[in-house]
Amino acid sequence: MANLTKEELFQAKIDAEIKIEPKDWMPEAYRKTLIRQISQHAHSEIIGMLPEGNWISRAPSLRRKVALLAKVQDEAGHGLYLYSAAETLGVDRADLMNDLVTGKAKYSSIFNYPTLTWADMGAIGWLVDGAAIMNQVPLCRCSYGPYARAMVRVCKEESFHQRQGYEIMMTLSNGTPEQKAMAQDALNRWWWPSIMMFGPSDADSSHSAQSMAWKIKRFSNDELRQRFVDATVSQAEYLGLTLPDKDLKWNEERGSYDFGAIDWDEFWNVVKGNGPCNRQRIKARQKAEENGKWVKEAAMAYAEKRRKRQQKIKTQEAAKAA
Ligand code: 3HC
After folding, report:
1. What is the pLDDT of residues 83-106, one digit of tens each?
2. Which of 19, 10, 30 is nearest to 149 (CA)?
3. For 17-45, how does the pLDDT look when each residue is reduced to its tens digit (9 = 90+)?
4. Nearest to 76 by CA among 99, 104, 44
5. CA 174 to ligand 1 center in whole angstroms
6. Average pLDDT of the segment spanning 303-322
7. Is residue 111 over pLDDT 90?
8. Residue 322 confidence (pLDDT)
9. Contact 143, 215 (CB under 8 A)
10. What is the DSSP letter of 58?
11. Ligand 1 site residues, Cβ closer than 6 angstroms
12. Percent of the chain with pLDDT over 90
């Protein structure tokens, strides 16, 4: 071990499944890719509140409203958890938020689609949170300690999100023909954007190889996407709904479903900021930042006042003791 370089020692820790903690030495590239991924993940949680927040005041019952309110509040908490995990890598949360509101930072493509009917709340919980669970459970074993630990709590809450979404879809699918049609319409609009959430194909993923070598990623984008498709087909069948993919077919040999070609032009177009709701989402965040400025200033002023008061007490006590 003595004559290993710092990089070799670092990789030996990763290979031995030893968690990397904030104070440990790490290659700058490892730190940078974690800041990139964790901050984008946090931004996704915060922006993800907007499409669903749109239906809180229009939920069809108090029970549905309370469940949706709890879910949207959970997403805010996930964002705060993840910003805190990112800060352990030496970045400032204010800078991360600024990258988001100036359109510099990425967040998950899925949140740039409109939520047109109540059934979209079901489809998002079922499919988007379902895909998030598929992608986030392996992150509980990420090599970076703070990220892995944040994911454990997040995944527990995602399971509730997925259940409440699927239950909405079950109610609608077993409801009137109009309700079932609304559920099918939501599935038709959310299915393909949900499988795009897993990122570009492995061949086009610029980060996967290195992220897997560093055990940030445990499975490739295509592996997790395939798992999600395989897990979701029977759920759609149980609802009596049809997945909008005429090429979807069980492949006995592979033990998985073959599915149709993803529209990567649509994916990259949305990632580049030209999706149906990208501008609306950024504007909403800019407005929230503006409207929330006074809260931040008041909290900072109070903290400063408290710090000064504690400092004064310390000085008085020191003078007494002398
Ligand atoms: N939306 C927007 N950008 C995406 C994307 C998506 N769905 N998928 C990939 N990209 C971007 C990547 O950020 C990268 O761009 P960058 O170099 O500018 O950062 C580029 O496309 C190449 O993609 P890679 O596959 O090489 O990038 P990664 O290795 O980072 O893999 C990822 C992408 C699988 C999304 C990975 O970053 C990841 O697992 N992130 C953490 C989980 C996450 O963010 N989940 C989605 C949203 S959270 C959520 O759904 C909340 C829930 O409560 C609803």
Report:
1. 999 999 999 999 999 999 998 999
2. 19
3. 999 999 999 999 999 999 999 999 999 99
4. 44
5. 35
6. 94
7. yes
8. 87
9. yes
10. G
11. 36-37, 40-41, 44-45, 48, 75, 78, 106, 108-109, 128-129, 132, 135, 158, 196-200, 205-208, 211, 217, 221, 271
12. 97
Among protein residues, the one with the nearest Cα to ligand 1's atom 19 is 36
Confirm if 230 and 259 have CB atoms less than 8 A apart: no
Which residue, chain included where needed, has tokens 């499919």? 127
Give ∠ CA 21-27-30 in degrees, rounded to 5. 70
* Tokens 């609802």 found at: 239
Q: How far is CA 116 from the centre of its chain?
A: 21
Q: Model confidence over 7-18: pLDDT tens digits?
A: 999 999 999 999
Position 167 scores a pLDDT of 97
pLDDT at 92: 95
Residue type (1 letter), 124: I
Q: What are the residue ranges of helices labelled H in 240-277?
A: 264-269
| C-alpha span between 6 and 28 (Å, rounded) | 12
User: Average pLDDT of 174-194?
Assistant: 98
Backbone phi, psi, residue 251, to 5°:
-110, 100
Alpha-helical regions (H) of 137-271: 145-173, 177-196, 208-213, 221-239, 264-269
User: How many A from CA of 305 to the centre of ligand 1?
Assistant: 41
Q: Where are the alpha helices (DSSP H) in the chain?
A: 6-15, 28-53, 62-87, 93-101, 119-123, 129-136, 145-173, 177-196, 208-213, 221-239, 264-269, 278-321
- Output 138-142 pairs: Cβ under 8 A, ≥24 positions apart: 138/217, 138/218, 138/219, 138/224, 139/218, 141/215, 141/218, 142/215, 142/216, 142/218
Question: Per the confidence metrics, is the pTM higher than 0.85?
Answer: yes
